[in-house]
Amino acid sequence: MAIPDPLVHVDRAISELRRGAAVSVIGEKKHLLMVAAEALTPEQLEMLGNYQAGEAALVITGTRANVLGIDKTDRAVSMVSHPQGLTLDVIECLANPLAALMNHPSLDGLVVSDAGDLAQAAITLCKLSRLLPAALIIEGAQAAPDTLVVEASEIQSYISNAAESLMQVSEAQVPLENAENARVVAFRPRDGGIEHLAIVVGDIDPAEPILVRLHSECFTGDLVGSLRCDCGNQLRGAITEMSRVGSGILLYLAQEGRGIGLVNKLRAYQLQDAGFDTVDANLQLGFDADERNYLPAAQMLRKLGVHRIKLLTNNPLKVAALARHDIEVVERISHTYPANKHNEEYLQTKAIKSGHLF
Ligand SMILES: Nc1nc2c(ncn2[C@@H]2O[C@H](COP(=O)(O)OP(=O)(O)OP(=O)(O)O)[C@@H](O)[C@H]2O)c(=O)[nH]1
Ligand SMILES: [Zn+2]
């Protein structure tokens, strides 16, 4: 029999959570049952409320608890309960800042406490599922026979395990408008999870530092020409520049919305329209300002035989992250395009709050 693959367990748990099913997270001698807050139905809440094993509580990130003002500590994850049980209205407002803009149920009497390792893994699983980082949990609850079981340690090591397992699965010549000699190379993790792409322009000489761009997927900017960001210009501009200098590699990373996913990015845009900047909108949703991990990028570069690069970026985090993953950045090349009236504030916030260089 094949050895069960931890990546596959997590991948299945992601599907379960996204379709609103309960998942059981287990650790050493401990277990909890979780449902993603944003997929919670009144029936499920009633079912979980009647669970004999223990009391249902909501886990949210410390960041979300801080902006709500219900937890002033620096806990990574906070557990929230109510002596009379949490109602769906309260859960929605605690989990989702957009619901909190519309409804104002009383938050009196909430009890906030430390969340253990399993609850932290539950939050990580929500993030991997590209859902809001909030889950209704019951600690100590045994899994029902048809509930999927996943280990907390498998969840916590998923990102690095998936990155390390990336394999080149296909490649083809694709002449581009601004770079006729280009090929697209696709990489897939072992569990069949999210694929990342490399666009290789010209012929690469691994003996020389290669011009590289790490481009995080942006449906709105890359595909439909959104003016809220500068992604479309950066994408096409990088390819044009690689063609001009003769060669280069653009990694097209499946990290939409700085790693929070397209649905959450649209939520962040709605919050920005309500007055928050791009960083605070992420924090309101309970995410970090930037949730990306660049191990997949480093791994793809290694698979392409590239170890020394010149990086097209304004983001110092990308340079530092690649260096941590053993890719030598011999030069950072600024990658700036003129602002428009829709993205001016966004670009300013990145310079002021995220340390972007120009
Ligand atoms: N969460 C969030 N993501 C955004 C927002 N605007 C754009 N994005 C995402 O940000 C990512 C773009 O980042 P990058 O082009 O890598 O930009 P960067 O981190 O500023 O770094 P450089 O462009 O390399 O300087 C894409 O995944 C976009 O979808 C926003 O307001 N909120
Ligand atoms: Zn964009």
TrEMBL record:
Top-level taxonomic group: Bacteria
Protein's name in the database: GTP cyclohydrolase-2
Cellular component GO terms, alphabetical: cytosol
Lineage of source species: Bacteria, Pseudomonadati, Pseudomonadota, Betaproteobacteria, Burkholderiales
Function: Catalyzes the conversion of GTP to 2,5-diamino-6-ribosylamino-4(3H)-pyrimidinone 5'-phosphate (DARP), formate and pyrophosphate.
Xref: NCBIfam families: PRK00393.1 (NF001591), ribA (TIGR00505)
Residues covered by the GTP cyclohydrolase II domain: 170-333
Residues holding Zn(2+): 218, 229, 231
Enzymatic class: hydrolase
Presence of the UniProt keyword Metal-binding in the record: yes
